[in-house]
Amino acid sequence: MLAQLQELLDQGRASAAALTTAAQLDEWYSTYLGKKGALTTVLRGIGSLPAEDRPQAGKDANTVKVALEELYRARSEAIEREALQAELASGALDVFLPGRPASLGMMHLSSQTLREITAVFSRMGFGVLRSPEVEDDNTNFQLLNIPPHHPARDMWSTFYTDQPGLLLRPHTSPGQIYAMKKFAPEPFRVILPGKCYRYEQVTSRSEMMFHQVEAIAVGENITMGDLKGVLTYFARAMFGSERKVRLRPSYFPFTEPSAEVDIECYLCEGKGCPMCKHSGWLEILGSGMIHPQVLRNGGYDPERYSGFALGMGPERIAILRHNITDIRYFFGNDLRFLEQFA
Amino acid sequence: MLVPISWLKEYVDIDLTPEALAETLTLGGLEVEGITHIGEGWARDKVMVGQVLGVRQHPQADRLVLANVEYGADEPLEVVTGAPNLHVGDRGQKVVLALVGARLIDGHAEGTHYTVLKRGKIRGIESAGMVCSEKELGVSDEHTGIVILPDDAPVGKPLADYWGETVLDITLEANMARCLSVLGVAREVAALTGKTLKRPEQVTPPAGTPIDGHVAVQIADPDLCLRYSASLIRNVEIRPSPEWMQRRLALAGMRPINNVVDITNYVMLEIGQPLHAFDYHQVQPLAGGSVPTIVVRRAHPGETMTTLDGNLRQLNGDMLLITDGSGPVAIAGVMGGLESEITAQTHDILLEAANFQYINNRKTAGALKIPSEASYRFGRGVDPELTLVALERAISLLYSYGGGTPAQDYVDVYPGRTPDKVIDFRVSEVKRLLGLDLSAAEVAGLLRSLEFSCEELPGNVLRVGVPSYRLDVTISADLVEEVARLYGYDNLPTTLIDDQMPSQIPSRDLALEEHLRDVLVGVGLAEIITYSITSLESVAKLSPEGALPDPAEYIRLVNPLSSDHEYMRRTLMNTSLETLAANLRYQERAALFEIGNIYLRTEAQRLPDQPRRLSVALAGARAERSWLGQSDAMDFYDLKGVLEVLNQRFGVSTELVRSTHPSFHPGKAVDIVLDGAVIGVMGEVHPTVVSAFEIEAPHVGLLELDLEAFLGAAGSLIKFKPISRMPRMSEDLALVVAEDVRSDEVERTIREAGGALLADVVLFDVYRNAQLGAGRKSLAYNLTYQAPDRTLTTEQSAKLRERILRQVAQRHQAELRA
């Protein structure tokens, strides 16, 4: 019995050493340790031994079984390790091939810029409102201190509709009236983003449709110094913290005093170049203290309340920041343009 | 406005460089857009004043002469010229002589080409210089003759010193009408640089007989004519105006004509008061009268007149005319009439300096499309106090340069005289509105520099007298602006808002819209923004029949830029498809979205409805082509996937029904329904419509959604749902149903039947084959069971399965596939 077992173990040990694949290993297992394997066959023979020999035979058989199982385990680990080594050695990818293309979307550059502007003003406590694009003459002009035939009307080339008195707003400033009427007599700060339209030939420098953002703050203690503070914060947030900002007197019928805001030309850093028409400055927005009559039209007592308003074009700002040479790209919607700002 | 600095210097001393002056003006609100240095390139040793000593014929050329020119050197220089205004035998003319090496403009080339003058032989004669035309000097485009300088031009003087000039190009805002003159700009320069305004010296001619009895003026419409002043000047000799005046007019952008017209223009440019000169003998008395009479009145309906430019003008009853006994002689403040024009035969002049109501003047000039320098000023407002100042200046010049004798006194009818404006100005307004601490004395000092009078009253109040030229100043905010402007915007404090924090405004719709953008970008769509102004032809492409929509439904522009952009859009579909087509011309896929308004005419309200819409348009390959293989073309289900993401992300449950929208393939489109109302449509575009938009793609997906309805239904703040840690059990069920059974409804039944223990349902296979039989399909679902708090037993999951099978059998006649 013992000899039989010993022979089995020797055979098993010898054959296990030659195993190289998992399949061979499985076969080896059934040959020696399977239900119909050699060890089972030997064990069956124990029953026919004399009773006094059986315990020793059982013990011996178990020793061999453990030894075979250990052989199996060791060989199995070795084969796995070899397989892993082989896979690592041979499984290299051509890592220099291009990756699988992902289909990514992106926001339009105008939307991105609008969102950035909104975020800057939001940090200064400004909420967001929207007002109509098709507007009436009264809100667009008259309540903003621009009576019919006033010379200032020349400042806005306006599209008029077949419905008398209705026009496409050429600026977001009528939003000031909506905002004031909504909040009067409480102090408030909001921005009003949206589309505007101008009767202007579409060229590389002018568009018939564009966005504007109006910002307006009304309160009992708001000064032009505050306007300067907000503008400086805004310009530095959008154009860099070292950028110089200047205000110069301008004219809007709905603000008094009025100011045009220039930033130092980023191309020539103020030295003068074709981009800034050799002035060293780039105009980025118009602003001013809200005219007393406009405050009154919005429901505020101008003796007690004051406020400022400013308006800017996100496309203009994007053009300046990204060196875009032609405004027509914005609404041309060529993906080769839009994807550059993804 | 073009302002030569030498002219400005007659009114104010300037010790700044032109660049520094430009900067000062710009920061004072007079934006200098450009500075032109005339004569900058005239080398002092190469371009100078010369005098012709003699002219002789060129021996070899009939059309050329040889001019002997003295220029301050030891020897005169003989130069060849073909100038038609230099003839054999001429002598004494002052000319511009350029020597070899001078940099000039090529007079014979188109445009501006610089060339350096070289020594050369012209038809055998050596020429070491040339006499120059205005074009060669870069002064104008004039090249028919050479420049003839005034007789008193100093021979040998560098031309740059004699004729050089710097001209400022100033852009003036609509409230800066007071600066539409040299005087007006000079006044600002004086205030901004701390100088005093001065006046040029002028001669006062001896007056002739009194004007009384020679001219009468009646203002019939004093609402439109605030003042009419006139002078009579006799025995004027019509001749060219002096060279210096012609030159200044040209520098300011006006064409010289004759001394009378030039002087009226010169005074207008200098002082800002438009003048008009009539031939006195063409002004007729009224019927039955004997005195030439001017009547200022509105035009009669249907009245016509021929203006100076020879055009017959149709007038209406809103237009103001200058008339005499025979009819209209001028359109007030816009343009004179042809009949009373100054001609070479004119001797006696009736000179008008009037003031007209600015809005009416603008309307007239606009309606007749006559932009004139006069109406440019009248239409923005002219100080009515200027009329006599301007007449006096013009009379002085006419005396000096036309020999005219003015009648004694003026005719001056002034119905529009207004009391002097006085504003009691609380100095505290400067602090309140500018955040700037200034004393009353400091404020008064600033205002006085612009001719405001200031008297200190008790209570820190200034009584401010507004000068007549400041038509734009009426309230104390206007004075605040003057203070800010003169103090310098750059010198104002820069502060952070120190005020009550306003209540925050929740703008949920705007926040949701931004979130929507993020979600759409996340599913791989690119945002586009198309024009809101479209054409009916573009919209018609959305109809398979190409039917034009009813224009009555659209808001139409009355002044469109082109017929492509004439109507306000009622859908985003056509421009989305156009953008898709444009992009597919150069790439194999495009997946786009747009968020924007449409515009719906309403009768009830004044303003149209302007609701927000979302559109999605996609076509082409699902992914870009790569070495890993080519992907399928996007189709209906890509679009539907987008909608499902939106529903899921915004917590909205939309229903779908088959759509009959004509722009879509009838079998591949659904209406999107929310609470029983259709809020959108999506599907594959009708093949005919696809062709109309010139798109080449197997499928074109298009979606349009009413955003207010959709986002209005968006769930509020999301509440956390616990995640079960219990084991999950999963099994597959293949259900055979009739073809017309909707899988989404089967799925809903499964979910209802499964209840809380059914964690997930995924339809993972749909197929049809002969074994199933015609008109039947198999839907294979993977179901996941899971309880929140316990491990489900096999019996429990079997019961669940039974219930589900019972329900789908009952509702959909679904059979479990063997």
Spell out the blueprint of helices and strands:
The complex is a heterodimer of chains A (342) and B (818).
Chain A: H1 2-17, H2 22-32, H3 38-44, H4 54-90, H5 109-123, E1 127-128, E2 134-136, H6 137-140, E3 159-160, E4 166-168, H7 174-183, E5 188-197, E6 209-219, H8 224-239, E7 245-252, E8 255-264, E9 281-290, H9 292-297, E10 306-312, H10 314-322, H11 329-332, H12 335-338
Parallel strand pairs in A: 1-5
Antiparallel strand pairs in A: 2-4, 3-4, 5-6, 6-10, 7-8, 8-9, 9-10
Chain B: E1 2-4, H1 5-8, H2 18-27, E2 31-38, E3 47-57, E4 65-70, E5 77-81, E6 94-99, E7 103-105, E8 114-116, E9 120-122, E10 125-127, E11 129-131, H3 134-137, E12 148-149, H4 159-163, E13 165-171, H5 182-193, E14 216-219, E15 225-234, H6 243-251, H7 259-271, E16 275-279, E17 293-298, E18 304-306, E19 312-314, E20 320-324, E21 327-331, E22 335-336, E23 349-356, H8 358-368, H9 373-378, H10 386-402, E24 405-406, E25 411-413, E26 421-426, H11 428-434, H12 440-448, E27 453-457, E28 461-466, H13 476-487, H14 508-522, E29 526-527, E30 533-534, H15 536-540, E31 567-568, H16 573-584, E32 589-597, E33 612-620, H17 636-650, E34 655-658, E35 664-674, E36 677-685, H18 687-692, E37 700-706, H19 707-712, E38 729-738, H20 743-754, E39 758-767, E40 776-785, H21 794-812, E41 815-816
Parallel strand pairs in B: 14-17, 29-32
Antiparallel strand pairs in B: 1-13, 2-13, 3-4, 3-6, 4-5, 6-11, 6-12, 7-8, 9-10, 15-23, 15-24, 15-25, 16-23, 17-20, 18-19, 20-21, 21-22, 26-28, 27-28, 30-31, 32-33, 33-37, 34-35, 35-36, 36-37, 38-40, 38-41, 39-40
